[in-house]
Predict the 3D structure of the following.
Amino acid sequence: MLRSPLLAAARSSRMRSLIETVPATRSVVGRFVAGSATEDAVRVARELTEDGLRISLDHLGEDTTDAKQAETTVLAYSAMLSALAAEGLAEGADVSVKLSAVGQSLPVDGEKIALENARKICVAAAEVGATVTLDMEDHTTTDSTLGILRQLRVDFPWVGAVLQAYLRRTEQDCHDLSGEGSRVRLCKGAYSEPEPVAFQDKTDVDKSYVRCLKILMEGKGYPMVATHDPRMIAIAERLVMDTERVPGDHEFQMLYGIRPEEQRRIAGARQTMRVYVPYGDEWYGYFMRRLAERPANLTFFLRGLVTKG
Ligand code: FDA
């Protein structure tokens, strides 16, 4: 019930300035975000790596309407990849990139700018042995993002995509992206989407997730199972056995701060578990989507405001 208003608030600049200025917010945000600086990302990457987990780092930011800002984001990714390499943490690491943070939503030549900026991040990642995954944003960007993915894959075949099970089109996209070498992160989807394009009912989203997972597991690509849902994880584990997949030809993924014990259980079972670690100052949209996913997070947030404020 609270999902829609919270997702609407995620896009409201008035709500943003209100929530960002409450001093106690920071400590609650810290549960989901590694910190502001590159050093924070590297510190958390080290901690997770020491626990046997893989990482995908996300420099927070989205909906950039300023070309300079998009360039700054590219520089931030390059600096972060160099810092990871200096600590011996880059090999096998991944970075998650929102195309809207590197120019996709600019009014003139947005797609072209986003492609060129994403290409620069791919070059920086390739130099240190890391990979790149393109996050998926709201449905108005899906075709553009998959188009840019296709172009990047010509030179960087390891670039990963994200598909969202709540979209009605996603089963077909899974078929299209289930070929050799194709890295696909399957998630349920985190945005507010209209009924004609997306399943609204949680059961329908879950059923779609299972159908999509089956297509990816039976395909020739590299499925990345991104969910915290115990039922989806159990189904994925069974599909791994049924399709005779082995560790190294698929992986599980979760978000930083969510079900950390389960992350370690899966890694301990000799499966690849990758944790998505966001960092940076532009945490507002990301944080609001995490609140929308789980009412208990909102209670936790509000309680934090009352006790600290
Ligand atoms: P669901 O929401 O049904 O939750 C199942 C259970 O997981 C809950 O009962 C609870 O125990 C736990 N849980 C879930 N969310 C929680 C939270 N916020 N706090 C605490 N517990 C929580 N989306 C998108 O649209 N584009 C993208 O690019 C990505 N990228 C991405 C990467 C990775 C690695 C992950 C794991 C997720 C994404 N997502 C995403 C987000 C995704 O679409 C989805 O919104 C969340 O993962 C929540 O969905 P679940 O599959 O966990 O199931």
Observations:
- Strands lie at 54-59, 94-97, 131-134, 160-164, 183-187, 222-226, 251-255, 273-279.
- The pocket of dihydroflavine-adenine dinucleotide is lined by residues 135-136, 162, 164, 185, 187-191, 226-229, 253-255, 258, 276, 290, 293-294, 297 (CB under 6 Å).
